[in-house]
Specification:
The protein is an alpha+beta fold. It is 50% helix and 29% strand. Strands 1, 2, 3, 4, 5, 6, 7, 8, 9 and 10 form a ten-stranded mixed β-sheet that branches. Strand 1 and strand 2 form a beta hairpin. Helix 4 runs antiparallel to helix 8. 2% of the residues are buried.
């Protein structure tokens, strides 16, 4: 996308340069003053039209929304995660699928595979394997503390940005069954309490347009069973997201050594991505 934008600006610059040259020197086939004035008028009409089109495109982009769709499905040992991101009226789309998640214990943590479909027309796809263990979480926490030092009021900025996310839909259903009916009833009540607390906390951060749909269904027969489906749809304004990025950049500039800390954290993330993929 950046290459296409670069080519577009290069062509526009070339067009303006050639137009200016012909306006001041005269078109090759123009010989009299009247035709030269008419060419000048047409040239400026083209310039005005191009500017109007660019302004219209900019307004359309700023008025668009970024839609995010998150779905997590668990059925016994089968876990699946799907994330879809759509921007600029569907022109830009990304899809992340995690078809398998394996819990390898406390030391190795989680192992999973990510299928990514990206770019403007969904023609490219990549498959990678990731792992999250206690060392990875510790590195994230250390980098988070470094970013707090390298960014002025980062927590306040993050809370302000999250508050502009709008939740259009939230469905969260869980089916649980244990070997004993008393344990099943107790676990059902605990799940209701956990879900209510989490939704109450999310309601202080996000804007809900519709009440969330929550279900906990006890399974009295069949032994141990656990299945869950979590589905959330939310959106955010593109104009506000661009504004938030500019505010973040301003906060980094106001912090001593802010760019150095961010560059260090980003280079550490690139080095982790270059590490050999784990085997699942």
């Amino acid at each position: 996308m950046l290459n296409k934008l670069g080519c577009l600006f290069l062509r526009l610059n070339l067009f303006l340069s050639l137009g200016s040259y012909y306006v001041y020197t005269g078109w090759p086939e123009v010989r009299n003053g009247r035709e030269r004035r008419e060419s000048l008028v047409w040239f400026w009409w083209w310039i005005i039209g191009a500017v109007v089109v660019l302004i219209g495109l900019l307004i359309a982009v700023l008025c668009s929304r970024i839609h995010i769709d998150v779905e997590f499905v668990k059925h016994d040992q089968d876990d699946r995660l799907h994330i879809k991101i759509r921007a600029m009226y569907g022109v830009i789309r990304f899809r992340y699928d995690v078809p398998s998640v394996l819990m390898m214990g406390v030391e190795k943590g989680l192992l999973f595979r990510v299928d990514r479909n990206g770019n403007l027309h969904m023609h490219e796809s990549t498959i990678s394997k990731k792992s999250i263990d206690k060392d990875e979480i510790k590195q994230w926490y250390d980098q988070y503390k470094e970013l707090l030092i390298g960014t002025r009021s980062l927590k306040r900025w993050a809370i302000s940005m999250i508050a502009h996310f709008h939740v259009n839909k939230l469905d969260w259903s869980t089916n649980i069954g244990l070997a004993d009916c008393a344990h099943t009833a107790t676990s059902t009540g605990v799940l209701w309490a956990i879900k209510s607390a989490l939704i109450g906390w999310l309601s202080t951060l996000l804007q809900f347009h519709h009440p969330p749909s929550l279900f906990v269904v006890p399974l009295w027969k069949g032994g141990y069973q656990l299945s869950m489906r979590f589905h959330m749809q939310l959106h955010v304004s593109t104009a506000f997201l661009l504004k938030a990025m500019l505010v973040l950049l301003w906060r980094i500039c106001r912090t001593p050594s802010g760019f150095r800390i961010w560059r260090k954290v980003m280079s550490a993330g690139k080095q982790r991505r270059k590490q050999p993929e784990p085997t699942i």
